[in-house]
Amino acid sequence: MSYIMTNGIYYIFVQGKSIKKVLDVAKATVFQNYDDAVGTISKHKGKCKSYRIYDVTDLASADFDEINRQKQQKKQQKKQSRRTYTPKERSIIYKKDNGRCYLCGKELLYSEMTLDHVIPLAKGGKDGIENLRCCCAKCNQWKADSYSGDFENKISNIYMHQMNDKIGNKFMWRFIKKYLDKQMTELYSGA
Ligand SMILES: [Zn+2]
Fold first, then answer.
1. Ligand 1 centre and the CA of 149: distance in Å?
2. Helices in 22-169 by DSSP H: which ranges?
3. 7-47 confidence digits (pLDDT tens)
4. How far is the CA of 187 from the centre of ligand 1 (A)?
5. Sign (positive/negative) of CA torsion 39, 44, 46, 51?
6. How many Å lie between the centroid of ligand 1 and the Cα of residue 105?
7. Nearest to 114 by CA among 85, 157, 147
8. Can you name the CATH fold of 81-144?
9. Tens digits of residue pLDDT in 123-160
10. How far is the centre of ligand 1, averaged over its atoms, from the C-alpha of 101 (Å)?
11. In this predicted model, what pLDDT tens digit does every residue of 55-106 receive, in sequence order?
12. How far apart are CA 117 and CA 120, in angstroms?
């Protein structure tokens, strides 16, 4: 089988140790096996970011219009500026969550509350109050860059809070938290 890499517009052309993007499919590098294509992507992660590997036989049926439509949509969502919320809307959200951060459970003053989109706007979430929750500034920030900082501790706290009502056994939870901390530390120590 043979494979090429494309983002729906450009194709990857391998030239020695570097790669180029070309518009003409006829100039695209044809990989004889899938692993070679994957190898090229991992060598040039930055440049190949939005590229996908296609089986040449599938290419004719690949829906580039759909790919481009999705790209366009993503751009639009990025541009969409966040609206501001009226005091009334903010107070509805505050009451809805009993003045607590919906992630870690911390009690917040009304003035401390930040609003978090449960489904992020970038992932197609709505900007209405049904998609908004009361959130502490730390969790909000954490969610924004969820894979940096003290991710392990934060995720443990959230997990503890979310599950605490379901199993009231504190001893069990200390055990689980210890285990979870260990797992998380191992998992993210390399990150
Ligand atoms: Zn929080």
1. 15
2. 34-43, 56-59, 64-79, 87-96, 137-144, 151-164
3. 888 889 998 888 998 888 888 888 888 888 888 888 888 88
4. 22
5. negative
6. 6
7. 85
8. DNA Binding (I), subunit A (1.10.30)
9. 788 888 899 999 999 888 877 766 444 555 667 777 77
10. 5
11. 876 655 556 666 667 777 776 665 555 678 899 999 999 999 999 999 899 9
12. 5
Tokens of 154: 């934060």
What does the angle CA 87 – CA 89 – CA 95 come to, to the nearest 5 degrees?
A: 100
Report the separation in Å between the CA atom of 21 and the middle of ligand 1, taken as the mean of its atom positions: 44
Give the closest residue to 115 by CA, choosing from 79, 153, 83: 83
Is the pLDDT confidence value at 167 over 90? no
Amino acid, single-letter form, for residue 169: N
Please, which contacts does 60-65 make with residues 24 or more away whose CB atoms are closer than 8 Å?
64/8, 64/9
Domain spans of the chain?
Answer: 3-78, 81-144, 148-191
**What are the tokens at 102?**
């919906």
Measured in Å, residue 174 CA sits from the centre of ligand 1 at 20
Distance 169 CA to ligand 1 centre (A): 22
